[in-house]
Amino acid sequence: MSTTTITGTVDKEAKEGMVSVLNELGLSTSSFLNMLAKQIAREGKLPLTLDINPPYNQELVSRVADMKSGRNILTRELIEIAHED
User: Fold this and answer.
1) CB neighbour list of residue 59: distance below 8 Å, 6 or more residues apart
2) What is the predicted pLDDT for the residue at 68?
3) pLDDT tens digit sequence for 7-23
4) Phi and psi at residue 42, in whole multiples of 5°?
5) CA separation for the pair 84, 38 (Å, rounded)
6) How many whole angstroms separate alpha carbon 9 and alpha carbon 56?
7) Residues 52, 83, 23, 8: is their CA dihedral positive or negative?
8) Which of 2, 22, 49, 71 makes an SS bond possible with 27, Cβ 3.0 to 4.6 Å?
């Protein structure tokens, strides 16, 4: 198998987080990048979702609906739910 080098710049905290997870999985960064490259080449797509609209916290949406229907919801409850994700 012939190899090549890929050089890139990544946010320090993102790299540290990634390396931490990879270490727990027993993978090196090179092994992971090799797996990622093979998957992209094989499937012809990125193995992640790019979305400008993040998913909503369904419980928060439900509580807002409750408020609109007249149910008394404490602001503190909404803040706690919003920060769960």
Assistant:
1) 81, 84
2) 82
3) 999 999 999 999 999 99
4) -70, -45
5) 35
6) 31
7) positive
8) 22
